[in-house]
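User: I'm putting together a teaching handout on how multi-component assemblies are represented. Below are the sequence lines for each component of a complex, exactly as they appear in our records. Could you produce the 3D structure of the whole assembly as structure tokens, so the students can see both representations side by side? Please keep the chain order the same as the input.
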Amino acid sequence: MTLEAVQAGATPTGRGGVALAWRRFRRNPTAIGSALVLLLVVLACFPGAPLWVDVACHHGPAFQNINGYVTQNGHRVPVVANDGTPIGPGWRACYLLGADANGRDLMVRLLYGGRVSLEVGFASALVCVGLGLLIGMVSGYLGGFTDSILSRLMDLIWAFPVYLLAVALATSLALGGLAIGPLRVSSTSLAIPILVIAVVYVPYVARPIRGQVISLRRMEFVEAAVAQGAGPVRVMISELTPNVASMTLVMLTLIVANNILTEAALSFLGVGVPILTPSWGNIIQQGYNLIVTAPALTIAPGIAIMLTVVSLNVLGDALRDALDPHSKVRVKV
Amino acid sequence: MKTLSVILAGAALTLAAGCGGGSSSGGGSGANAGTPVNGGTLLAGIPSNPDHLDPGLTYTNEGWEIVEATNNGLLTFRKAAGGAGSVIVPDIATGLPAPTDGGLVYTFHLRSGVKFSPPVSRQVLPSDFKYSIQRLFKINSGGVGFYTGIVGANAFAAGNASQISGIVANDKAMTISFHLTQPDGTFLEDMALPFAFAMPKGTPYKDISTIPQWRIATGPYRVTDYVPGQKIVLARNPNFTSWTPNTPNGHLNAIDITVGVTPEQSVNETADGQLDWYFENPPPDRLPQLQRQYPNQVFTSATGEIEYFSMNERLYPFNKLAVRQAVNYATDRHALLKLEGGQGSITENIIPPTFGTAYVKHDFYPYDPAKAKALIKSAGVEGARVAVWSLNTDPYPNLAQYMASVLNGIGLNATVKIVDASVYWDLISTEKNDPQIAYNNWSQDFPEGEDFIDVLLNGQNIVNVGNNNQSNADVPAYDKLIDQAKRMPLGNARNAIWARLDAGYSKTNAPWVVFMNAARIKYVSARLHGLVFNPTYYDLFPSMWLSK
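Assistant: Of course. Below is the structure of the complete assembly, with chains in the same order as your input.
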């Protein structure tokens, strides 16, 4: 709205919070770039993976072709040599990035593995942030005994080095799976790494939210709601949650990046995603022993992880700047 | 049970104690050429601690390599490679005893002048051998099973006797007699195992690996320093004088073994001249390059070891013979060999090809996925859920994944369960955890069919904990045949029964998918010579020498 229009009596209309955030976000070229990279990765992994299989190589990520051959420069070349060395990258539809020791197409596994890594990263981040939000909210708002118990529980989890705790949890669930009452989760289910990764990072979400809620609970709008008869649940849902939403959203993006790295690390250590399911971490783990003769097996998923994590981190920072320019939220793990 | 050593072997290949047959090959002008030179310190490396340095307790290949250089028994396997190394010869005994009393009594005469190392420094006596075998029962040695056939051994083990009555030692006459409860064709082999090596009377009833004053040697070397997880140092035994060619003097002054060297590290350090010898095979992906670059420093030996997947005959769906046969038909053994870096040869036999006439090659299961699918269909188990177990060291997870793909391909629903190597063997040999199908391997304790067929498949040997018969195979007719063979003297007639059982189990019971005999591959320094791979004791340190 121009100054002339205001002087002519027009009523100025304010921009909403979301519109302002979007304006700040799109003025950040790094943020746009990282969002595009992330979008590309997601597109490549989700619609791209089956498309690549249908169009290019016609076999899935589990297809093992140890004794198979491919044609390269007019010659028949074994997918896996007699000494166990798999074929390397080359310009061909199948085995574009080469094969792994079991004769599986690395390109196909990279795309399908990306699906799993992203799913585990996002799902565990949602569970983690959900639990962290709940615990932080209840702890911060109710205070007193409840706060003491929940805070000590968070301290207990926080006291363990993240990877040590994750490895311990994952290893203990590796044989028998999870059984809590009627709830049964198989040891080969993706739910196991999702839950393990989510649990170990809960304190990193719950603590900042608790702090934010403690500073919010004495504010006038909360006291007004209480004065109008709102109970604790209603206050938490209607009054407090919207006020920590931007902080939670920023945390979510940063936790997703962190969880993708954790999945890769746990899978590399053999306690993450079940071995038959391709994930970026699993691919690196299975290629590590061939790093001299088949470096693509570790480099390709490594690059995929790096691109995804960097773009998520940049995106998270940009979101924070856009949603709450004065925020000091950082996820440090 | 030498599987433990294979666990510890980790990354490269299973390093079984291979029996004779194939002698070392490769190396052209390398390791065994030239006139031996005395002196020098061998720079050796192993990936992890041996289980023990106590001859009565150690049951790993690393441990046996060391105690072979430090201690002696009444008998020994000839200190040679290949088939010659599977022959029993006298060591501290003056000769091989002929069994008497219908094969129930063996009497050994001991050499005079064989001395223990300081601080004991006295002659080895028959009563020391009696003490050493009795000690096995007091320290819960894994080797007691070899000696329970001695009269009075079980009563001694149960605490009902103060000594094993069936061992009669006469220190004046320098004789020792062993009275057996029944004829045992492998008794002489048992006496050549490290469990029966001489320890001086008074050796504590506990692991003496870290008690320097009780690490008493009789051989050319003694352990002078042992820091678990860091190093083992062997130096010359000042009381040792060679008494037969079966007990060589040794050329090296000392052997410095660094603990914790990884296979990858070993290759780099050997190339840089920082390491002469390493316990394990080089990593499979480095091998082609090493063979090209250092053809005179890479050696291959056949072993008495098999690798296989055991299928549990008590658990669905492997309780059906058709399913076990189907898995055999559906497995492409060449693919599994590739996953092992091509370091071995494919086989279907239970008995290794290095076991003389006990090995008769059979080929009951040519690769035939269509037949396998038909068998699964006829057994009515399509879609059955199956977990393939494997340990977590390379390349075993890849083998398990291949097996899972085989099972999925024939209509089962397979997952893979990877378990840390440190607990894997204990877990799969405990009935509570009984896996449906699991990666397995077995390396010979001594080169005889009994060590495979009886130990691994005799239904009478099934136990709840520490079960070697992991398929729970239990065929009474075969059990009887095993008992019959065990009572026979060594030789072709006995071997014929093992060969018959090998074929019988494979064809009519199919408890395993046997796929490979592993090879032993060594990459050594240019200055190391005299590499001799003995089927039982592995690389013989006393044979090694270093060029100037």
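A couple of points students might notice: The radius of gyration of chain B is 23 Å. Residues 60-253 of chain B form a domain with the D-Maltodextrin-Binding Protein; domain 2 fold (CATH 3.40.190.10).
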